[in-house]
Fold this protein.
Amino acid sequence: MQSFYSTYSGRSERTLQLALFVTSATWFLASDALAGRASRGISERFSLDAERPLLAALFLLFLLAVGFSVLQAIAHRSSKLRDVLGLPKRATARREWVLGFAVGWGCVVLAILPMALAGKLDVQLWAQPRAIWLLLLNLGTLAVAALAEEVAFRGYPFRRLIEAIGPVAATVGMSFLFGIGHALNPGATWTSVLVTMLAGLLLSVAWLRTHGLWLPWGLHFAWNASIGVLFGLPISGMDDFASVIQTRAVGPLWLTGGNYGPEGAGFTAIVLLIGVVILVRITRDYAWNYTHKPIVSGGYAVEVAPPAAHVAMEQEAKPAPANSLIQILPVTPQARSVDEEPKF
C-alpha cells in the first residue's frame, strides 16, 4: 500500500513539473511578442532605433523574471529571484562566467580559423565615433539578450522539464526546441537548425555541469559577441551587430554558412561537438561541488555501549596523575651486590 501511494505521489509531482514547463514556455512566447511590441513603440516614440534591440532584451528579461516568480509561488516553493532565474549566489560565479566566455570565444575562433587561412573573409573597417558607440551598444545588447535567452531556455523551464522527464530527455528536448526556435531566422537552413541544436546541447551541458547559468551565459555571450562584433559576421542570419569590423565570407556553405553566418556551416557542428568534450573535462570541479547531492545518513544508530569488562580494563589502564609519586625499582636482584659477578 505504501508503494502505491509513493508511486502516485511521484507521478503527481512529475505531472506538476510538466505543467509548469508548458506554462513557462508559453509565457516565454507571449513575453517575447510583448517585449517586441513595447520596444518598437518606445523606439518609434523617442527615435531610439539603434537602442531597440537592447530595449526588447531588457523587457523580455523583466517579463520572464515576473512570470517565472509567479509560477514558483503557485508551486508553493519560496525562492529568491536569482535562484528562480538560475543565477545562484556563489563564490565561483565570476570564474564560471569567465570560463564560459573562454570556451565560447575559443569555439568561434576554431570555427572561423579555416575561413581565414583559406582567404575566404573580406574584412572592412569603419573607424568613426558612431561605430564605437554602436560597438558598445551592441555588446550590451548581446549580453542582456544572451542572459534572457538562457533564462528562457535553460533557466526555470529546463529545470522543470528535468524534474518531469529526467536530465537526458530534457537536454535532448530543450536542444531540439532551441534549434527549432531559430528555424524562422533569415537564411535559415536544415544545416543551421542542426548546428543550433548542437549549440543548445553545449549550453545545456554547461548548465548540467554547474547547476547555474553563470557558465552558459558567459559562453552564449562570447559566442554571439565574437561572431557579430569581433569578426563582424552574421549571427544566426542577423547582420545588425557588426560595427567597427564588417566581414563578408565567400566560399562553400559547409565552411562559411553563407548569409546565415558560421552557425549555418557544417564545419561548425564538428567544432561544437569538440566543445562539448572540452567543457566536460574542464568542469569536473564544478560538477563535483554543485551537482552531487549531499550524503544524508539513514537507518538506525549503531553506537553500542562497550561491555562492562572493557570499561573496567580501561579504568585500570589509566595513567597515574601527574602529581603522584612514582617508585622506580632496581633491575638487579636484591639478593646480591651490583658488583658481584652473576652466576650461571
Observations:
- The chain has one domain: 2-290.
- The CA atoms of residues 9 and 183 lie 38 Å apart.
- The chain is about 65% helix and 5% strand.
- The radius of gyration is 32 Å.
